[in-house]
Amino acid sequence: MRAVVVHGPGDLRVDERPDPMPGAGEVLVAMEWGGICGSDVAYWKNGASGTATLRHPLVLGHEVAGRIAGLGAGVSGLEVGTPVTVHPAEPVGDPRMPERLAGRTNLHPCVRYFGSAAFDPHTDGGFSGLRTVRADQIRVLPEGVDTASGALAEPLGVALHAVSRAGDLRGRTVLVNGAGPIGALVVAAAKHAGAATVIASDIAERSLAVARAMGADETVDVSTATLPEDVEIVFEASGAPAALGSVLRATARGGTLVQVGNLPGAAVSAALGDLVTREITWIGSYRFVEEISDALRAMAAGLVVAPVVSHRFGIDDAAEALAVAAAPGSSKVLLRLDGQAA
Questions:
Q1: Mean pLDDT, residues 170-192 taken together
Q2: pLDDT tens digits for 250-285?
Q3: Could you give the CA distance from residue 132 to residue 149 in angstroms, rounded to a whole number?
Q4: Residues 139, 87 contacting (CB under 8 angstroms)
Q5: Model-level pTM?
Q6: Which residues on neighbouring strands pair with residue 137, listed in sequence order?
């Protein structure tokens, strides 16, 4: 089978690897589509994503979908040919959590994640023709959700988790700063959750156009205009420390700011005074718990995610696909992983 493998900074290859076979309790998935995430781009460009540093070649990809191609011993309730996506997280070690974190498995202290170099040996991702997966990580696609949309369930799950962290959005006005793929999906998730008005802001008009297609009622080009004032619920999806000061100022006194964009792991300079003087509640949002299943149900119920996709490439053009995903103005880039035309 072919696999998209990063060997080091700037060194991406489509390698031939042996076909895997499912072991006991595992499912073999023939992958069809994969979505490129910022972490995939980071491993390719820098040889690291956050604090996770590449030590060995790594198969990229944690936003994937395909069809079941085989079942290992002891697996029941699943059938070959069924379209599926994958929950990419696997807690390692003692699964018990402190009572105050009950149910918040995304905060487990030790988690293997598809396409991650956080552990040595690394955890290969799903940008490959075939991948074995623990049966409990399989999520069956509902009727009407194709595998291209199924590959978007993971990032939509991230967006739905962020929205859930903000509380009840029904009838409220929301600002989403940063209209990249996650920000655009937060726009859609906020509207799905009943927000009356969603404002999206970005420096790129192409990204704002995607946000409008995903349901934004208003958009702000912050390269030429300022953010609105006194917004009660704000989502910061850019991950840009330089934006924090203006985003905090846009948040209403006593309002809530949900940080869903990944901030750097190193020291940064940011104007944070309004956090105190405006008594803002600043909430972090990390990955998701089971919102990937909520994402599938939402798509089956009519939540449209297709506008977030800006480009599609075949697996042989993976290097070009990552370069496009890293370029300003692109949105979600999909890879066709089974060799069929993209």
A1: 98
A2: 999 999 999 999 887 778 788 899 999 999 999 999
A3: 21
A4: yes
A5: 0.96
A6: none
Give the three-state DSSP class for 48.
strand
User: Is 204 in contact with 179 (CB distance < 8 Å)?
Assistant: yes
* DSSP calls for 203-265: S-HHHHHHHHHTT-SEEEETTTSPPPS-EEEEEE-S--GGGHHHHHHHEEEEEEEEE-SPPPS
Closest CA to 88 of 129, 34, 42, 41: 34
Task: Give the pLDDT score at 97.
Answer: 86
User: What whole-number distance in Å separates Cα of residue 72 and Cα of residue 230?
Assistant: 55
Domains and CATH numbers, the chain: 2-152+305-336 (3.90.180.10), 156-284 (3.40.50.720)
Answer left, alpha or beta for residue 110, where phi above 0 means left and psi between -120 and 50 means alpha: beta
52-53 and 130-134 beta bridge pairing: unpaired
Tens-place pLDDT, residues 4-57: 999 999 999 999 999 999 999 999 999 999 999 999 999 999 999 988 999 999
Look at the chain and count its residues: 342
CA distance 342 to 126: 17
